[in-house]
Amino acid sequence: MNHIILNSAHESGPTLNCHYSQIEDLYAQDNTHHTWLKSLSPQIQWACPLQTHSKTIYDLDLGFQSQPEADALITSSPNLGIAIWGSDCPGLIINCGDGHFGAAHCGWRGIAANLPTLLCGALREKSSFPTSQWSAYIGPGICQDCYEVDQPVLASFSWPKASLKKVNSTKALLDLRMAISCQCQLLGIEKITISPICTAENSNHHSYRQSGAGRNNLMAVYC
Ligand SMILES: [Zn+2]
Q1: What residue spans define the domains of the chain?
Q2: Secondary structure of 128-184 in the HEC alphabet?
Q3: CA of 40 to the centre of ligand 1 (A)
Q4: pTM for the full predicted model
Q5: Residue pLDDT, tens place only, 33-50
Q6: Distance from the alpha carbon of residue 157 to the mean position of ligand 1, in angstroms
Q7: What DSSP line would sit under 66-127, residue for residue?
């Protein structure tokens, strides 16, 4: 399991615990994601969305749901945790520093639909802190060298130059985490941490590109 602490920009602000599952965490037994999440923090109530590569954001403060249909969740409750599925799609976690936080599943479709920007927009309506004082964590995902994409993906969005490496006239290598980071930077977030882990190259994690459908990885976050 990978664990990082996402500090708030304020010394006194809440820190977030961010965990990323390994294959063995979720294959140990049936219904393993509940067991794994409970092992992280038994007193936390977990929300684990039904993701559809959409840009839907659900606010858990409006009413707790354990499996909302959404690709991003936000909350300000210290009793709630958010767990986002992903295999090669990186997850994004935002810590506003005043108790508000959120997480999103950011595959190319979500990024092309501006989901990172929309997640920050939803948090900006609630947080009293400016985005310059927020911090962001972009979790494990497929790296640029392992992620060749073609025209449908390239034509779907105005991808930032820094996220593309041209292969030929129709193909390019796409850096999803860089594309997420660019949206965060444009919104004024200065403190951005990017995981170096490539899910396609690290055998501790499931990769859709590498092995096809299977048990995805979970990125879990709580206060
Ligand atoms: Zn890679």
Answers
A1: 2-142+177-222
A2: CCCHHHCEEEECCECCHHHCEECHHHHCCCCCCHHHEEECCCCCEEECHHHHHHHHH
A3: 27
A4: 0.95
A5: 888 999 999 999 999 999
A6: 22
A7: SS-B-SEEEE--TTEEEEEEESSSPEEEEE-SSS-EEEEE--HHHHHTTHHHHHHHHHHTT-
Give phi and psi for 40, each to the nearest 5.
-70, -45
Judge whether residue 67 has pLDDT over 90.
Answer: yes
Q: Which residue has the higher pLDDT, 30 or 39?
A: 39
Taking each helix axis from N to C terminus, what angle separates 115-124 and 176-186, rounded to the nearest 10 degrees?
A: 30
Domain spanning 2-142+177-222: CATH superfamily: CNF1/YfiH-like putative cysteine hydrolases (3.60.140.10)
Cα 126–Cα 40–Cα 122 angle in degrees, nearest 5: 15
* Residue 203 alpha carbon to ligand 1 centre in Å: 11
